[in-house]
Amino acid sequence: MQFSYSRRQLQNAAGHLSGDEEDFYQGEIRDIILTTIEEALSATENGTRKRDVLQDILDNNPCAHLSEERRQRVKNLFKGYKSLTGAMRQELQRLGIEITEDGKHYKLTYCGDPRYMVTVGKTPSDNRSGSNNAALINKKML
Prior knowledge:
- The protein is mainly alpha-helical.
- The protein has two domains: 23-64, no CATH class; 68-141, no CATH class.
- 49% of the residues lie in helices and 12% in strands.
- It contains six helices and three strands, in the order αααααβββα.
- It has helices at residues 7-14, 28-42, 49-60, 66-78, 86-94, 129-141; strands spanning 97-102, 105-110, 117-121.
- A hairpin with a 2-residue loop joins β1 (97-102) and β2 (105-110).
């Protein structure tokens, strides 16, 4: 049996996916979905239907890689981290990261959502502290 569908019919058959999460910044959820598809595509064998479908989605929906730009900004901020400077605070706030002090640590919360909170020391324990902090922030929040 051979199936023949127009692009319009396929679009209607696929429907529109939705959930209850909201963008923390414009295009965030779309960016997360498309970068996840890119990652899946790189792990999918050539010559398979799955790969062709994933590639078609990416070909027709360009990804702006907004989250990657944001992750790079965090990496740059924490390079050589010694303390949380005023300039760092401002940049983190521009990224939607709220900062509160908690004894010997700072609590960083992404867009006011307690599900996305990390703690960083006020003073670094070693040379890798800044890189480790950036990696943790990027994994949990971005």
